[in-house]
Design goal:
The complex is a heterodimer of chains A (about 260) and B (about 325). Chain A has about 260 residues and is mainly α. Chain A contains 12 helices and no strands. The radius of gyration of chain A is 20 Å and the shape is globular. The model of chain A has no long low-confidence stretch (mean pLDDT about 90). In chain B, the strands form 3 sheets. Chain B has a 6-stranded mixed sheet, sandwiched between helices. Chain B is of the alpha/beta class and about 325 residues long. In chain B, strand 1 and strand 2 form a beta hairpin. Classes of the chains: A mainly alpha (about 260), B alpha/beta (about 325). At the A-B interface, helix 1 and helix 5 of A face helix 2, strand 6, helix 3 and helix 5 of B.
């Protein structure tokens, strides 16, 4: 596990030095602009708008980073041949994949932490104080982090067998489809025969990002149940573990030409 | 964990290693990158793996490093199977034209590799400084690798390969990208490694390097092993010819009868004649009042051996018959 830690740490260092966290500047500008604009054009729903806009931006910024860095985690190392000197050491291939994954998840965690502070800052600016229900925003942020864990794992899985461009297309498509997973399950329930069977399998295969999206409800100060927090956590961990296991299985057999 | 080997243990034992890639749109067309290779490298020797570009040298090294998987066959390195982490802790590998994480400094890169190689944390800074000095980069440890020249990167590559004091080193084209001074330094380093008891297996197509360094060489061409031999044997054998050099630019008529190859350069003539004409050649020079400068037997060179091994197999077979 020591080697996994060092690989993860180096992945984090790469992201920081490649200026990935510079997106925080763009996010800060967006949050400041939103807070000022919303304060001037809306009345009574400023906080709701800030939460909706802010958390959606956190999610989109993070997903873009997850996909565009995630697809290059392994393929870039193969293409640039940095992997050769790594795998000629006592490093197992699974340690490399898991280390890279954890490194990017760590980067996203730090990134989300600062973006969440930005959202809370904008909320404070428009409302001047925090209320108890505002704590649910943190749960929404936690669910967004769980989304990133799944998206990163998927990007890594796709990149283990396809080109970076196709991996990005697959991962982003799955993110969009996953956002409508509940609708897909509803559609499966309304169909018959083979269509029902195919739709049901597809609905349960795609990641259920709609269950991880509680932005609208927390913006309306509605609580999130402990059961949902538990189920979402277990679901995200199982889904990401399966995707990473798939990536490891493929990578273990791959010829690094 | 240190694995001690019996003295007669082979450092590398390649047993029929073969690699066939599937190419084409449907991946149904086989392309043989390496035909079944049988090769042994003994402990403590510098072994040169020679061949032109695309001969299969890098494929062999990648197979040994576990970067690609063999279609058939196997190999043992330091008595252990390919991929065994205990074996990997005792080998160092320099890939061809190495590329490293360019956002790191040389020191950070080597520290990272030290951590992955299992060097105790306290020893890493000292080891890093030591190897950087050894490869001639003592003052650039804090510089990001993106600012390094090709030759400097090659030196970093050698540093990372020897960082953890491995018993066996694999170098893929180690002189590539180095200026003559750098090449000399790397040659010296490889000789030092040999004196420290390490085994060095290196691929190259620069024959002068191989001739100067290697105990034994193997020639590979089109994925096929064409020959293995000790450099001393290959270069000491006499080809039954003499090189005669004399002063002047006159070639006695008799030399035409010997079937000699003569070359006039300035005021000296160099002739290659068969050994049986030695006395007659002397007599011809004496009669023409020409001053003999030297007479030496023509020895085989590694280049001659290499070129002979690159001939098409069919042509060689025809010559033999």
């Amino acid at each position: 596990m020591n080697r996994v830690y060092h690989i993860a740490l180096n992945t984090f260092r790469e992201a920081v030095r490649d200026r990935v966290l510079y997106n925080l500047v763009a996010f800060a500008v967006l949050m400041c602009g939103t807070a000022i604009l919303v304060g001037q054009i809306s009345f009574g729903i400023e906080k709701l708008v800030v939460i909706n806009l802010g958390l959606t931006a956190v999610s989109l910024f993070g997903v873009v980073i997850s996909i565009f860095i995630g697809i290059g985690l392994v393929s870039k190392e193969i293409e640039k041949r940095t992997l050769y000197t790594l795998l000629s050491r006592p490093v197992r291939r699974w340690e490399f994949v898991v280390g890279k994954f954890l490194g990017l998840v760590g980067t996203l965690f730090v990134n989300t932490f600062f973006m969440a502070i930005g959202v809370l800052g904008a909320m404070l600016y428009v409302a001047h104080h925090f209320e108890k229900p505002d704590g649910w925003v943190l749960v929404a942020v936690y669910f967004i982090v769980l989304q990133f864990v799944i998206v990163t794992a998927l990007a890594l899985l796709f990149s283990s067998f396809s080109s970076p461009l196709m991996s990005a297309v697959f991962a982003f498509s799955l993110f969009i489809v996953g956002a409508f997973a509940e609708d897909l399950r509803g559609f499966a329930g309304m169909t018959r025969g083979i269509t029902r069977w195919i739709a049901t399998v597809a609905a349960y295969l795609v990641p259920n990002f709609s269950a991880l999206n509680v932005i609208t409800s927390v913006a309306h100060e509605q609580p999130v149940s402990g059961q949902l927090i538990f189920y979402n956590t277990v679901y995200a961990l199982i889904y990401a573990t399966m995707a990473i296991s798939g990536a490891v299985l493929i990578f273990e057999r791959r010829n690094l030409k | 964990m240190e694995v001690l080997l019996p003295n007669d243990m082979l450092a590398i034992e390649i047993l029929g290693l073969e690699k066939i890639y599937s190419v084409g749109f449907w991946r149904k067309k086989p392309k043989c990158a390496l035909r079944p290779l049988h090769l042994n490298v003994e402990e403590g020797e510098i072994f040169g793996f020679l061949g032109p570009n695309g001969a299969g040298k890098t494929t062999t090294l990648k197979l040994l490093m576990g970067l690609v998987f063999p279609t058939s066959g196997t190999a043992r390195i330091l008595g252990m199977e390919i991929g065994d982490p205990r074996m990997k802790a005792q080998i160092g590998f320099l890939p061809e034209q190495p590329y490293f994480y360019d956002y790191l400094t040389a020191r950070e890169l080597l520290e990272y590799y030290g951590q992955l190689s299992g060097i105790p944390g306290k020893e890493i800074p000292h080891k890093v400084q030591e190897v950087l000095a050894r490869v001639g980069l003592p003052n650039v440890s804090g510089l990001q690798l993106r600012k390094f020249s090709k030759g400097m990167l090659q030196r970093v590559g050698i540093a990372q390969a020897i960082l953890h004091d491995p018993k066996l080193l694999f170098f893929d084209e180690p002189m590539s990208g180095l200026d003559p001074f750098g090449r000399r330094e790397v040659r010296d380093l490889m000789e030092q490694l040999k004196h420290e008891g390490k085994t060095v297996f290196f691929s190259t197509h620069i024959l002068s390097d191989a001739e100067a360094l290697c105990d034994r060489v193997a020639v590979i061409h089109n994925g096929e092993l064409r020959g293995v031999g000790a450099v001393a044997d290959l270069t000491s054998s006499v080809r039954g010819k003499l090189e005669i050099i004399w002063q002047g630019n006159t070639i006695p008529q008799a030399f035409k009868g010997f079937g000699a190859e003569c070359h006039v350069t300035g005021d000296t003539v160099r002739a290659i004649v068969a050994e049986e004409f030695q006395d007659a050649a002397f007599a011809a020079l004496r009669n023409a009042h020409l001053r003999l400068i030297s007479l030496t037997p023509v020895r085989n060179s590694l280049e001659a051996y290499y070129v002979s091994k690159l001939q098409p197999v069919k042509a060689v077979a025809e010559v033999r018959t």
